C-alpha cells in the first residue's frame, strides 16, 4: 500500500496503453497493471478482465463506499478468486485512491470492531481516573481547539479550582513553570503547562523534572496537565507514559458558523442589537461569519483551496466584528465597504496571508460578499442559494437558520468544482499513507529474508543500465557557442551542467548502494537513507538536494528524469533548437523564458524590460508543432496541465472540469514576445503557473520563487473571479 505499486512491481501488461480511458485515468490503469504483478494471486489477469468487462466495473467508480460492494465475477463473494479483505483494500488503493481512507475504516471495523473506528467522547473524568501523580495528562492540540475552558470547569467540579496553577509556556517561562510544579508536588495541586511546543529548548528540563517525580515523595492529588501541538521536541518519555487526549473542533461550514454565533461579542444580544444601522450591521455581520468559515474550511482542500494553510482563528473574527460595529455605526448614507475590505482583507485576515495568489482569492471573496446587494432581501452567499443571509435579522433566527444547513458542505460553497472533493479525499489518502510509512520504521517490512534487498538491488541496477553518461559540456559549447543573437545556446549549456550534477549524484549513490548490499563497503547513514527511500518508493533526500522541484514517487520521478535528459540530448543531436519546447523539461525554467525575450529584444533593438509575452492558444496535439516550423518570433511550448478547470477545444477557452477529471492537458501555447504597450486587453484569466502541485514555494537567492513561474493569460468567457474561486492554475509537473 505504502509503495503505491511503484518500482519493483513488474507486470506483463503495458501500463502505458490505457484501453479504458473513458472509465479510468492513465495513472489508475498503471496502478491496476502493477497490482497484477505485485499480487498475482488473485489479480494476475485483472487488467485483462477490466478491459473485457468495463461495464461491470463501472459501478465501482460510482460507489460512495466501494470497499463494501460486491465485486464483479470472478472476484465476487464465494468465488475461488474472491480477494481477502486486505487484498480488496489494495484493489481500492489502485482503482479508487480517493476512497482509500473510508475503505481502511471499513476494513478495520470488519476486522477488529466498530469501537476502533469511532472516536470516544471527550471525557476528562475518564482520562483523570487513568492518571496518577506520576502519570501526566497530555492534550494534543489541533488548530481551532482549546481544552483550557473544559479543564477549568472540570477543576471546579473537583473542587480544585483554587489549587490549579496555569502558565503559558514561552521564552523565560521555564523557571516559573519548574517552581509551580515543585509547589504542586508538595501541596497536591494541579499544574497546567500551556503550549509546550513554544518552549522547545526547555523540554529536556521538563523531562528531567518528570523523571524525578516519585510516588513516595509526591502528594497523590498532584496532577501535571500539558497542552502541546505535535512537536518533535516534546519529551518521548512523558508522551509514552502520559494519558493522551485530543478534542478536534467541529468541522464544516455549519459547525463553524454556529461556533462563530456563540462567540463573544456576537453572542451578546446587547452588542448584537446596539448598532444604529441595525439591519445593515446584522447582515454584514452574518456575511463576516461566513467569510470566517470560508477561509478556515477551504484549506481542507489543500493547495487548490489555499496555497499556504494559514492559521486563521477566533481573534481575527472578534476584532473584525468590533471594527464592523464601529465603522457601520459611524457611517453616513453609504456603507463603508472600502474601509471594511481594507481592515479585513489587508489587516486582520489579510495580515496572515503571505502569498499574492492567496491575497487575490481573499480580495475576490470580499468583493463578492461586501457588495451593495448585501442589503437586499435576497442575497446568496453561494451559487446554489443553499447558503444565504436570512431575512429575519434576530440572533435566534440566525442560529435556527444555521442549524438547517447541510452538515457536510459541497465544494460549491467555496466556489470550487465538485471534483475538489476528490482532490480533498486524495490528499487525505496521501497523508494517511505518509503516516503509515512513518510508523513502518526505516525500511518497512521486507517479506522474506533478503527479499527487500534484492528488490532494491534490481531497482538500482535497472536505473543504472538506463542512465546515460554525463553530457560532454566541451562538445556542447563547440556545437552551441555563446552567440549574441541566440541566447538559447547558453540555456542548453547551463541546463546540461545542472543535470550533470544531479546525474552524478544519482549514479554514485546507486553504485554505492549496490556495493553496500553486496557487503563490499559499509552502509553509511546517507546510503541507508537512499536504500530506505527506494524500498518504499520515495525519491531519496540525497537526490532531491540537487534536483529540480518534484513531488513524484520514485518510479515516476525516474521516468520523468530520463525524459528530461532525452529532451536535452535530442536538442544537442539536432544541432538546432527544437521547433516546440517541452516546458516541464527545464531544470530552471525562468532562464529559458528570459532567453526567449532576450532574443527578441536584441533582434529588434529594444530594452528587455519593455517587452513581455503575449500568449496565443494553439491546437492540442504537440506533434503538429514538433514536426513543423518554429514561429518567426517566440516559441511554442507544451506539456503543461490545467487544474481546477477544463479546456474547450472548439472555442479555445477555459471550461468547467469534466466529472472526476482533476487535471487536463493544456493546449500548445505560443509564447510570443511583443512590446508591452502593444499587448491588447481581452477577456482572460491571469492563470498562475507552478512547477509542482504543491503550489507554495520560497523566494530563492535568484529572486525567483522555487515554485511559481509566471501568470499566463488564458482566454475565458466567464469573469476572472469565477476561476479565482475555482483555484485554477497550470502545472508543469503532476504528483504521479
Q: Please, could you describe this protein's structure?
A:
This protein is of the alpha/beta class. The chain is 44% helix and 10% strand. The strands form four sheets. It has a five-stranded parallel β-sheet with strand order 2-3-4-1-5, sandwiched between helices. A five-stranded mixed β-sheet has the order 12-9-16-14-15, with helices on one face. It is built from 28 helices and 16 strands. The radius of gyration is 30 Å and the shape is globular. α12 (253-261) crosses α14 (278-297), α12 (253-261) packs antiparallel against α18 and α20 (451-466) runs antiparallel to α22. A hairpin with a 4-residue loop joins β10 (646-648) and β11.
Provide keyphrases for this structure.
single chain, 736 residues, 5-stranded parallel sheet, 5-stranded mixed sheet, 28 helices
Amino acid at each position: 500500500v505504502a509503495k503505491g505499486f511503484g518500482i519493483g512491481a513488474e507486470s506483463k501488461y503495458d501500463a502505458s496503453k490505457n484501453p479504458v480511458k473513458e472509465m479510468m485515468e492513465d495513472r489508475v490503469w498503471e496502478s491496476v497493471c502493477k497490482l497484477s504483478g505485485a499480487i498475482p494471486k488473485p489479480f494476475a489477469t485483472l487488467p485483462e478482465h477490466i478491459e473485457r468487462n468495463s461495464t461491470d466495473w463501472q459501478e465501482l467508480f460510482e460507489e460512495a463506499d466501494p470497499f463494501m460492494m460486491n465485486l464483479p465475477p470472478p472476484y465476487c463473494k464465494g468465488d475461488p478468486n474472491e480477494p481477502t479483505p486486505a487484498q480488496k483494500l489494495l484493489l481500492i488503493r489502485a482503482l479508487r485512491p480517493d476512497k482509500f481512507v473510508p475503505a481502511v475504516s471499513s476494513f478495520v471495523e470488519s476486522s477488529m470492531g466498530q469501537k476502533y473506528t469511532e472516536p470516544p467522547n471527550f471525557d476528562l473524568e475518564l482520562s483523570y481516573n487513568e492518571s496518577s501523580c506520576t502519570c501526566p495528562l497530555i492534550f494534543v492540540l489541533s488548530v481551532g481547539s482549546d481544552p483550557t475552558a473544559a479543564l477549568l470547569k472540570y477543576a471546579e467540579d473537583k473542587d480544585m479550582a483554587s489549587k490549579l496553577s496555569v502558565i503559558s509556556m514561552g521564552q523565560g517561562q521555564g523557571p516559573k513553570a519548574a517552581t509551580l510544579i515543585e509547589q504542586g508536588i508538595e501541596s497536591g495541586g494541579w499544574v497546567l503547562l500551556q503550549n509546550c511546543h513554544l518552549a522547545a529548548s526547555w523540554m529536556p528540563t521538563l523531562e528531567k523534572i518528570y523523571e524525578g517525580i516519585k510516588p513516595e515523595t509526591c502528594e497523590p492529588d498532584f496532577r501535571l496537565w500539558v497542552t502541546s501541538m505535535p512537536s518533535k521536541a516534546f519529551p518521548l518519555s512523558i508522551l509514552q507514559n502520559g494519558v493522551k487526549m485530543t478534542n478536534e473542533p467541529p468541522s464544516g461550514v455549519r459547525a463553524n458558523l454556529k461556533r462563530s454565533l456563540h462567540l463573544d461579542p456576537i453572542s451578546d444580544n446587547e452588542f448584537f442589537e446596539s448598532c444604529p444601522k441595525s439591519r445593515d450591521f446584522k447582515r454584514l455581520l452574518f456575511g463576516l461569519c461566513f467569510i470566517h468559515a470560508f477561509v478556515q474550511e477551504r484549506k481542507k482542500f489543500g493547495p487548490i483551496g489555499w496555497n499556504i494553510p494559514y492559521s486563521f482563528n477566533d481573534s481575527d473574527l472578534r476584532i473584525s466584528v468590533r471594527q464592523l460595529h464601529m465603522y457601520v455605526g459611524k457611517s453616513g448614507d453609504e456603507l463603508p465597504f472600502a474601509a471594511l475590505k481594507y481592515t479585513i482583507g489587508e489587516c486582520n485576515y489579510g495580515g496572515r496571508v503571505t502569498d499574492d495568489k492567496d491575497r487575490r482569492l481573499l480580495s475576490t471573496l470580499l468583493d463578492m460578499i461586501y457588495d451593495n446587494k448585501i442589503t437586499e432581501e435576497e442575497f446568496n452567499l453561494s451559487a446554489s442559494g443553499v447558503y444565504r443571509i436570512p431575512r429575519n435579522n434576530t440572533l435566534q433566527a440566525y442560529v435556527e437558520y444555521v442549524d438547517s444547513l447541510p452538515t457536510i458542505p459541497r465544494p460549491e460553497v467555496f466556489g470550487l468544482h465538485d471534483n475538489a472533493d476528490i482532490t480533498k479525499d486524495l490528499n487525505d489518502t496521501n497523508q494517511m499513507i505518509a503516516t503509515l510509512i512513518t510508523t513502518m520504521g526505516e525500511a518497512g517490512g521486507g517479506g522474506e529474508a533478503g527479499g527487500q534487498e534484492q528488490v532494491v538491488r534490481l531497482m538500482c541496477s535497472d536505473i543504472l543500465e538506463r542512465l546515460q553518461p554525463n553530457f560532454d559540456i566541451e562538445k556542447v559549447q563547440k556545437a552551441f557557442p555563446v552567440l549574441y543573437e541566440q541566447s538559447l545556446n547558453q540555456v542548453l549549456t547551463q541546463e546540461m551542467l545542472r543535470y550533470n550534477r544531479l546525474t552524478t549524484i544519482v549514479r554514485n549513490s546507486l553504485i554505492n548502494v549496490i556495493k553496500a548490499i553486496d557487503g563490499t563497503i559499509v552502509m553509511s547513514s546517507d546510503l541507508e537513507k537512499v536504500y530506505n527511500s527506494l524500498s518504499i518508493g520515495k525519491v531519496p533526500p540525497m537526490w532531491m538536494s540537487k534536483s529540480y522541484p518534484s513531488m513524484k514517487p520514485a518510479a515516476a520521478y525516474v521516468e520523468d528524469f530520463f525524459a528530461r535528459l532525452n529532451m536535452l540530448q535530442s536538442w544537442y543531436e539536432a544541432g538546432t533548437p527544437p521547433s516546440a519546447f517541452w516546458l516541464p523539461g527545464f531544470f530552471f525554467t525562468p532562464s529559458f523564458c528570459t532567453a526567449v525575450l532576450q532574443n527578441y529584444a536584441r533582434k529588434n533593438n529594444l530594452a528587455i524590460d519593455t517587452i513581455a509575452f503575449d500568449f496565443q492558444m494553439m491546437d492540442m496535439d504537440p506533434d503538429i508543432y514538433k514536426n513543423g516550423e518554429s514561429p518567426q518570433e517566440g516559441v511554442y511550448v507544451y506539456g503543461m496541465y490545467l487544474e481546477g478547470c477544463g479546456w474547450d477545444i472548439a472555442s479555445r477557452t477555459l471550461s468547467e472540469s469534466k466529472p472526476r477529471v482533476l487535471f487536463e492537458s493544456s493546449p500548445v501555447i505560443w509564447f510570443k514576445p511583443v512590446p508591452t504597450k502593444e499587448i491588447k486587453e481581452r477577456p482572460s484569466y491571469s492563470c498562475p503557473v507552478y512547477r509542482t502541485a504543491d503550489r507554495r514555494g520560497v523566494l530563492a537567492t535568484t529572486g525567483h520563487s522555487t515554485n511559481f513561474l509566471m501568470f499566463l493569460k488564458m482566454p475565458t468567457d466567464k469573469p476572472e473571479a469565477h476561476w479565482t474561486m475555482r483555484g485554477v492554475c497550470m502545472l508543469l509537473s503532476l504528483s504521479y
